[in-house]
Write a structure and sequence with these properties.
Shape of chain B: globular
Strand content of chain A: 15-25%
Radius of gyration of chain A: 22 Å
Order of helices and strands of chain A: HHEEEHEHHEEHHHHEHEEEEEEEHEE
Largest sheet of chain A: 8 strands, mixed
Largest sheet of chain B: 4 strands, antiparallel
Order of helices and strands of chain B: EEEEEEEEEEEEEEEEEEEEEEEEEEEEEE
Helix content of chain A: 25-40%
Largest interface: A-B, 25 and 31 residues
Structural class of chain B: mainly beta
Strand order of the largest sheet of chain B: 1-30-29-28
Number of helices of chain A: 11
Oligomer: heterodimer
Distance between the termini of chain A: 35 Å
Helix content of chain B: under 10%
Low-confidence stretches of chain B: none
Number of strands of chain B: 30
Low-confidence stretches of chain A: 1-46
Strand order of the largest sheet of chain A: 6-5-7-1-8-11-4-12
Shape of chain A: globular
Distance between the termini of chain B: 15 Å
Structural class of chain A: alpha/beta
Strand content of chain B: over 45%
């Protein structure tokens, strides 16, 4: 499926991309690339802005080394379970800081996506649907950007923070169009092409913009259309984004906070996520890599979760302390979990059969444990759910009706898989 | 089990299996006791299993709350020391009918990765994930000293056979020799070949997985994995780096001629002038035999399973290996009896 553009012009799109570069998909294309549907905020979203914060633990976090430990069993591995701030709920000892925040969080321990492929698993978990040969569906962040972001927000509505890469827009918005696609801040750096070129002085830039504004105004006096307004708006939003470039500069945060989050990349990324949310970005995804531990799963989980635990827990506590928790849906997901069986190289392999997702914040009942696996974690024995149930739950949690249909080139497509439903007992 | 009294000459190329002991879950480590009567192996079920080599009687030692990776013995007192991933160091009477913990020490914050006993039996050294080397009184378990300096998990430790020196090696291949009396660092050895930070994976892989010093104290051998092309899957090759102990210079890198993926899990110097290293990994287990003057092995014994650990029996003839399949196998480095 392709986004249905108002202008119907490939040339127009090419010119736009050339002009705005990677910034265009995030802010510059505010009007031009807008599908013909749902342009006004939904009634149920009126009031305080909702946010979605996803931690994507790429490669597949082991549920046994995190949210569903099985110590002392044949699959348990060497780690112990520790108590948490929720009496009776235990998680792996690798997450001592997170354990103290569990009264804000909830675990779904009964996820069975039946998918052990990285790419397909990621599609399941980010779109709530299985991969289809002829259809692409928007990722959660793109849906959130469309449904939750204020129209005039000068910042991108859907931002990923990763160790490497950088750029955008990504291809994760499908028929919603590039406006809602993710912009990736590689290594937490600001979006590309948002700095004024070195050879262009501030005064020259101002004169250039003034001339553009004058020309636009002259044009609009006789030939104003919706398209010309959208064109002007895109420039204005891009300019605002450039003026607010320091939103992406985590060093502007207090030194004490940088210390609390930890002097390492993931710590800075978590603090940047807080900064972006505070500045109104609707959907932020922090990627942490890599958990694809076919080899020496336990050593690698010490290293990765040792890095993850403190900044993640600090961010949860900060969102609570700053009054943002009830408006921010937090999800910790991966493409799948890892096999209970430990292979000969101390590794765990891909496992979509019985694994866990962590949620908290907006619309989520705190301190809950939904579902159950058997004694050694090889199968779900209570309240089996899959990606479809989770996707419905995410939307319901932030006040979006999962049955809402979006027009995509004349087709009316449900935002969530109609065959699934929310995990209602998890909703607040 | 073969008798060792009228043993034929050592011939690594003739190594053959002479014993097998089975546990019902995967094994982690194995060591013979100094008397040579028993072989001990640790397992996924947190237990240590003891087998009588002569009769095969199996006795469990259960007290740890996690995996036990390190086993060491007092040279004369009959004490077994076990270090666990529960951070505990436990003293046992190795030959007791039903061994129970004699002493339990909270030794490290995080995993205890290795335990060593000084040649005179006076001191214990432990290392772990708190990046520390700790010295203990081997008789009563009192803390003697803490040697700080490693910046990463410490994977291994050995005492020098003739000097009052203990040597430790960490995740990034930083190998430090410490004066036992003063706690001062004497020198470092560069084992960086045994470590890699995998950018794609975003994690460190490697570490000094095995360590030994020759009986004359002249050479230090450190083993692990090198040339890692894929940390996700542990694709690398086994390597043992040998250093001149006095100068700290590398004198040999012992590798393999095989197209073999894995790591060097244990290593020992043999009195007959060769070095043996066990391997574990994607291509199963081997025992590789090297001479110090050549980087390639002169013989590779293919094992039925990966060798997560290997130990030389006090008789100098037999070797034990511990396998993920739950077996301890005993091998004899001689020609088969006719």
């Amino acid at each position: 499926m392709k986004c249905h553009y108002a202008c119907q012009s490939d040339e127009h799109m090419l010119a736009r991309r050339k002009f705005l570069g990677t910034m265009a998909g995030a802010a510059g294309g505010a009007m031009i690339g807008m599908p013909r549907v749902v342009q006004a905020a939904l009634p149920e979203l009126a009031g305080k802005q909702k946010h979605i914060l996803v931690f994507y633990l790429a490669g597949g976090l082991s549920q046994l080394e995190s949210w569903d430990p099985k110590p002392g069993t044949d699959t348990g591995g060497p780690f112990r379970a520790i108590g948490t701030s929720v009496p009776g709920t235990h998680i792996c000892e690798l997450l001592p800081h997170t354990a103290k925040q569990m009264h804000h969080l909830s675990i779904v321990r009964s996820v069975n996506t039946k998918e052990n492929d990285h790419g397909k698993g990621k599609i399941c978990m980010t779109t709530g649907r299985r991969q289809e040969p002829v259809a692409e569906y928007p990722h959660l962040g793109a849906v959130g950007a469309k449904m939750l972001a204020p129209e005039q927000l000068p910042l991108p509505g859907h931002i990923h923070i990763s160790s490497r890469g950088g750029g955008g827009p990504g291809s994760d918005a499908a028929f919603l169009g590039p406006k809602y696609a993710s912009i990736t801040l590689g290594n937490g750096e600001p979006p590309q092409n948002t700095a004024r070129p070195e050879g262009l002085s501030e005064a020259s830039d101002a004169r250039r913009n003034a001339f553009r504004a004058a020309a636009n105004a002259h044009f609009a006096r006789r030939r104003r259309t919706a398209d010309s307004d959208a064109f002007i708006s895109s420039f204005d939003q891009a300019q605002q984004l450039m003026e607010r470039r320091d939103v992406f500069d985590v060093t502007k945060e207090p030194a004490a906070d940088l210390e609390r989050y930890g002097d390492h990349e993931f710590g800075r990324h978590c603090l940047l996520a807080r900064r972006l949310l505070e500045n109104g970005v609707s959907c932020v995804q922090v990627n942490h890599s890599n958990y694809d531990t076919h080899y020496e799963n336990f050593d690698f989980h010490i290293e990765q979760l040792g890095e993850f635990d403190r900044p993640f827990a600090t961010l949860v506590a900060d969102l609570v302390d700053r009054g943002m928790w009830n408006d921010t849906l937090l999800i910790v997901m991966a493409e799948f979990g890892r096999t209970p069986k430990i292979n000969k190289n101390f590794g765990r392999d891909h496992w979509g059969t019985a694994w866990s997702v962590l949620l908290g914040g907006c619309g989520i009942q705190p301190g809950a444990v939904i579902g159950k696996t058997n004694a050694n974690g090889t199968e779900v024995v209570d309240r089996e759910v899959d990606h479809g149930h989770l996707f419905h739950t995410y939307l319901r949690a932030v006040g979006v009706d999962p049955s809402l249909k979006i027009d995509a080139g004349g087709r009316s497509i449900p935002v969530a898989d109609p065959a699934a439903s929310a995990i209602t007992e998890l909703l607040a | 089990m073969s008798e060792t009294a009228a043993m034929p000459p050592i011939a690594p190329e003739q190594t053959h299996q002479v014993g097998e002991f089975k546990h019902d879950c995967p094994l982690l480590s194995c060591r013979f006791d100094p008397s040579g009567q028993y072989v001990f192996a640790s397992a996924y079920d947190f237990s240590i299993q003891r087998w009588d080599l002569a009769g095969g009687k199996k006795t469990p030692l259960a007290a740890h709350g996690s995996w036990v990776w390190s086993l060491a013995f007092h040279p004369t007192a009959g004490t077994l020391y076990s270090g666990g991933y529960d951070g505990k160091l436990i003293f046992w009477e190795a030959a007791a009918e039903a061994p129970v913990p004699l002493r339990t020490i909270d030794a490290h914050d995080g995993w205890v990765r290795a335990v060593a006993v000084s040649p005179d039996g006076a001191l214990l050294a432990t290392v772990g994930n708190d990046n520390l080397v700790k010295l203990w009184n081997a008789a009563d378990g009192t803390h003697v000293d803490t040697l700080a300096g490693h910046a990463h998990h410490v994977y291994n430790v050995v005492f020098h056979p003739t000097l009052p020196v203990v040597v430790s090696g960490d995740l990034k291949g930083v190998i430090r020799a410490w004066d036992v009396a003063s706690g001062e660092e004497l020198r470092q050895f560069d084992g960086a070949a045994l470590w890699k930070y995998d950018q794609g994976f975003g994690a460190d892989i490697g570490g000094v997985r095995s360590m030994a010093i020759s009986a004359d104290g002249k050479h230090l051998a450190c083993g692990g994995i090198t040339e890692v092309s894929n940390a996700f899957a542990g694709i690398g090759t086994p390597l043992v780096v040998v250093f001149d102990f006095e100068s700290g210079e590398k004198v040999q890198s012992l590798a393999t001629t095989k197209k073999f993926r894995g790591l060097a899990s244990d290593v020992f110097f043999h009195g007959e002038g060769f070095i043996a290293g066990s391997t574990t990994g994607h291509d199963g287990g081997h025992v590789l035999f090297w001479k110090l003057d050549k980087p390639e092995e002169f013989f590779a014994l293919k094992l039925p399973d990966s060798a997560r650990a290997m130990h030389l029996h006090p008789d100098g003839v037999r070797v034990g290996t511990a396998e993920p399949g739950g077996n301890v196998r005993v091998w004899q480095m001689t020609a088969k009896a006719t």
